[in-house]
UniProtKB/TrEMBL annotation:
Gene3D superfamilies: Ribonuclease Z/Hydroxyacylglutathione hydrolase-like. The lineage of its organism: Bacteria, Bacillati, Actinomycetota, Actinomycetes, Kitasatosporales. It comes from the Bacteria. Pfam families: Lactamase_B_2 (PF12706). This is L-ascorbate metabolism protein UlaG (Beta-lactamase superfamily). It comes from Streptomyces griseochromogenes.
Length: 255
């Protein structure tokens, strides 16, 4: 299997001849955020058999990026997302399925399980709590956990189960992380609980608010390296691959 990190929470996972794309975000700029590191993902990144959306925040459910996906792509979104984000209904070239924690969807040789996340799943800045924030476990040649955005929660291991690979958020897009996020320390704690064979840090070092370059810049630059250091202490048995934007890692996972 192979994993490519395009930046933020966007990855391509290739397993069992199926291409899976997580939280597609191909924008150079999003509202007050500007892409500060890594090129905008190329057209190659738009091609997927399956795309996963973890929650409704605009940096994870980005309608223009979803519109760029290849026709016929299967798209999994949190339950009631089309009601909260009506623009989803206009993406008629995609095959949309709503899911909630516990739901299972089969795509080719892959089985995808939706699992809960501890995160505000609303379409911000305002909106009712209609849709759950999700993570996903993709089971094929390997079992891969894409956490989306989440904080630690007691039932994480119970819901996720044994996995080979964990794609864990370790930062954010601003100088302060709010409730329901993993920083490098909490991500290392999650790693110690989940005990995958491999981890890839995501959701850091890509977007930053315009005009805030000098405000806590270490929160932009440092999370990846900090996670590598803390993971080695908390879960030394886990191989951590810190990828650059657009870089890939090919994994041999023995079951």
């Amino acid at each position: 299997m192979e994993i490519t990190w395009w930046g933020h929470a966007t990855c391509t996972l290739e397993d069992s001849n199926v291409r899976v794309l997580t939280d597609p975000l191909f924008a150079r700029r999003l509202a007050h955020l500007r892409r500060r590191r890594g090129a905008v993902p190329p057209a190659e990144a738009h091609r997927a058999d399956l795309a996963l959306v973890s929650h409704l925040h605009a940096d994870h459910l980005h309608l223009p990026s979803l519109a760029a996906l290849t026709a016929g792509t299967r798209l999994l979104v949190p339950r009631d997302a089309p009601r909260a984000v009506p623009g989803l209904r206009r993406l008629r070239h995609l095959r949309l399925t709503e899911v909630a924690p516990g739901d299972r969807v089969r795509v080719g040789e892959l089985l995808v399980r939706a699992v809960p996340a501890r995160h505000d799943g609303r379409r911000l800045p305002v909106g009712p709590h209609r849709s759950p924030a999700l993570g996903y476990v993709v089971e094929g040649e390997a079992r891969t956990y894409f956490a989306g955005d989440t904080g630690l929660f007691d039932a994480m291991v119970e819901w996720v189960g044994p996995v080979d690979v964990a794609l864990l958020p370790v930062g954010g897009w601003g100088p302060y992380l709010g409730e329901g996020h993993l920083d490098p320390g909490r991500a290392a704690q999650a790693l110690a609980r989940l005990r995958p064979r491999v981890a890839v840090p995501v959701h850091y070092g890509t977007y930053w608010p315009i005009g805030m370059d000098a405000v806590r810049p270490h929160e932009f630059h440092a999370p990846g390296d900090e996670f590598v250091r803390l993971a080695a202490e908390a879960a030394p048995q886990v191989a951590v691959h810190k990828l650059g934007h657009g870089e890939s890692v090919r994994l041999e996972v023995a079951r």
